[in-house]
């Protein structure tokens, strides 16, 4: 009997993955443990291996296609073995367990029955689910996916073109709110292309970043407060340590100062869950790392318990492995506060977007020379940088946020206090 290759769930929050590249092709021999396909999900590329020997009989999900968890990717079996209807990805029986939200969503969508003339409707499971949530009749649509398959963008385009077409559901029927989709979906604008323009699909890491940044910006009422920090003493202290054989970056000192300040101000470590406030027990520092394909935030867990040396080593290790696409799924989840440093790019000031479910994020800017009048009236050159704290005003007030920033500032201006 043919074996189904399904989209795995690689994290608790994973809902779908994108087929990046088929390593094996239809007709290729496959042994147990061989890599069959690469998928991209939650900002990482993962390899899917075969669980048995055989032949790749049929590829169902094409490269670049989004497939929900447990969605069918391909069949592996014996040469010449017949497989079921594969004109559209199907969700396996394992994923068909009772669930209130999916069942309700599907209840509002037209049944997946053959269309007029006996021709089967080709639609991806994700598109069918979104159609149910948004009240779109997909049976009248023409798909733009592979082989004319109806995909998510077709449903979203139909919903945008006819937002009032969906009939109201009966009062006793529970249907997932459209807002659940719109929080991670973007309106279709049908922009006019000009000569030389190219079009590419929003996929993989860039898609995840876009969705999360959009959701954060839409859902959270934010305020950004910027404080100037005199780092003249810090840079001199860093230089002295380097001469003694201890090399630390400015970012290392910032991370250590932030971790220490968060322990003094636990009120910053909160998250909003509906109408509940969750007070976090751990200082788990998210550290934004820029990649060619987007942005990823590996997490330094219990950063307040680490020495400067240990924190520096951990930060460097996570950043290196993030750039090499070698992070595990648990290494970029669970942050309780995030630091985004653009100082090395010469950025003087910016407004970082909160990394949900954190309540705040600290932006670190570049170091600049500034003339300062000393107490004795003389003029001297100092080095200053600005830190920009963006916070969720539903959870934190300006004075609370300012006190935290003042603590970070004081620690950075008196670097020995960071180590004590």
UniProtKB/TrEMBL annotation:
<comment type="similarity">
    <text>Belongs to the 2-oxoacid dehydrogenase family.</text>
</comment>
<dbReference type="GO" id="GO:0016746">
    <property type="term" value="F:acyltransferase activity"/>
</dbReference>
<dbReference type="GO" id="GO:0045254">
    <property type="term" value="C:pyruvate dehydrogenase complex"/>
</dbReference>
<dbReference type="Pfam" id="PF00364">
    <property type="entry name" value="Biotin_lipoyl"/>
</dbReference>
<dbReference type="Pfam" id="PF00198">
    <property type="entry name" value="2-oxoacid_dh"/>
</dbReference>
<keyword id="KW-0012">Acyltransferase</keyword>
<keyword id="KW-0450">Lipoyl</keyword>
<feature type="domain" description="Lipoyl-binding">
    <location>
        <begin position="2"/>
        <end position="77"/>
    </location>
</feature>
<dbReference type="InterPro" id="IPR036625">
    <property type="entry name" value="E3-bd_dom_sf"/>
</dbReference>
<dbReference type="InterPro" id="IPR023213">
    <property type="entry name" value="CAT-like_dom_sf"/>
</dbReference>
<dbReference type="InterPro" id="IPR000089">
    <property type="entry name" value="Biotin_lipoyl"/>
</dbReference>
<feature type="domain" description="Peripheral subunit-binding (PSBD)">
    <location>
        <begin position="122"/>
        <end position="159"/>
    </location>
</feature>
<dbReference type="InterPro" id="IPR004167">
    <property type="entry name" value="PSBD"/>
</dbReference>
<dbReference type="GO" id="GO:0006086">
    <property type="term" value="P:pyruvate decarboxylation to acetyl-CoA"/>
</dbReference>
<dbReference type="InterPro" id="IPR045257">
    <property type="entry name" value="E2/Pdx1"/>
</dbReference>
<protein>
    <recommendedName>
        <fullName>Dihydrolipoamide acetyltransferase component of pyruvate dehydrogenase complex</fullName>
        <ecNumber>2.3.1.-</ecNumber>
    </recommendedName>
</protein>
<dbReference type="InterPro" id="IPR001078">
    <property type="entry name" value="2-oxoacid_DH_actylTfrase"/>
</dbReference>
<dbReference type="Pfam" id="PF02817">
    <property type="entry name" value="E3_binding"/>
</dbReference>
<keyword id="KW-0808">Transferase</keyword>
<dbReference type="InterPro" id="IPR011053">
    <property type="entry name" value="Single_hybrid_motif"/>
</dbReference>
